Amino acid sequence: MKIAVIKEQLAGETRVALLPANVTKLVKAGAQVTIETQAGFQAGFTDQDYLDSGATIGSDRRHTLDGAELILTLHAKGEQLDLLLTELQSGQTLIGMMDPLGHPDSAQKAADKGINTLALELIPRITRAQSMDVLSSNATIAGYKAVIQAAELTPRLLPMMMTAAGTLKPARTFIMGAGVAGLQACATAKRLGGVVEAYDIRPAAREQILSVGARPVELDIEDADTESSGGYAKEQSAEFIAKQQQAMANVLAQQDIVITTAAIPGRKAPILITKEMVAQMKPGAVIVDLAAEGGGNCELTELGKVITVNGVIISGPDNIVATTANHGSQMFGTNLENLIRHLITDDGNLHFDFEDEIVHDTVTAYQGQVVNGRIRELLNLPAINKEEA
């Protein structure tokens, strides 16, 4: 089986889909790997590094894709996917992040072209798929980097310091959302010496918040149905969000740093912080909105910009994970390697077993049709049997 790794098309993306270490293992498993020239350069890997790992180098995109059965990329959504579909041939398989619930038509476009697609965002949250979970890897880095960015933006130091010039109080840091990104933000802020508090609508998050050294904030408005079967927070009613905002305003007014992490796959991020709430915050307070790409948890967030409103600094990072190119590539590449090894047979051929939960949930288009049930619903297509897939 020939695997092609292409150079990323998205502006500002610095990562690469596979590292030389991943290539070495896949070659040992019987795969042939071609890397588009300079694909790993921004992550710290030269073409020679890939040659040494057993790969060949494609001089351009066309050469890289020629004869490949499996094409790997980080981003394959919107314009990136449209461009790729003009370059791919029927029967090839594309793996990447496709925002399948936000862009369900992408699966139909791929199916119409005869391209098989696997959307990494749909990897199920089950034990045996943890090593393939790209979303958790990205969230881990995002949570860490959000705190580092906040530490750079705040006019305060995070830890308490006792100096000859007096005692400096620690910065109060509040994390909204205790998923993977939120918990990593809690742990990072705690290690930097801040006083850390966190809030999540899921009752189960309380113990997780405590486990990373933060103090859980309880607003006493929790909804009975707050967590999906996959472990994510569910979308809440407008009435619940209004109550949450009202109760949260007093908490935010005391904070030096606020990091928001609430995102809903395929939908606009919920507004947790209104402009009225920002007006009540301290001048010099910092908000880092990790949901900026999904519309933002703060009403005033501007994607890709750092703005100041009434003295409050608001950052809306765009693809914050790309600021950690090396480790971001390492985590993504390992996730991808584990998925590929799961998909290939002992003789090195690619095989889709739709009885397998990982394959069933992740494959969006196969042999000319959309096969993922959730995406078919979004496209108003009738359900199909597994046998038809």
UniProtKB/TrEMBL annotation:
Keywords, ordered alphabetically: NAD, NADP, Nucleotide-binding, Translocase
InterPro entries: AlaDH/PNT_N (IPR007886), AlaDH/PNT_NAD(H)-bd (IPR007698), NAD(P)-bd_dom_sf (IPR036291)
Stretches assigned to the Alanine dehydrogenase/pyridine nucleotide transhydrogenase NAD(H)-binding domain: 151-316
Source species, domain of life: Bacteria
SUPFAM superfamilies according to UniProt: Formate/glycerate dehydrogenase catalytic domain-like (SSF52283), NAD(P)-binding Rossmann-fold domains (SSF51735)
A GO MF label: NADP binding
Signal peptide, first to last residue: none
Alanine dehydrogenase/pyridine nucleotide transhydrogenase N-terminal domain: residues covered: 4-142
Family annotation (SMART domains): AlaDh_PNT_C (SM01002), AlaDh_PNT_N (SM01003)
GO biological process: NADPH regeneration
EC class: translocase
EC number(s) given by UniProt: 7.1.1.1
Cellular component annotations (GO), alphabetically ordered: plasma membrane
Catalytic activity reported: NAD(+) + NADPH + H(+)(in) = NADH + NADP(+) + H(+)(out)
Described purpose of this protein according to its UniProt entry: The transhydrogenation between NADH and NADP is coupled to respiration and ATP hydrolysis and functions as a proton pump across the membrane.
This protein's name: proton-translocating NAD(P)(+) transhydrogenase
Species this chain originates from: Ferrimonas sediminum
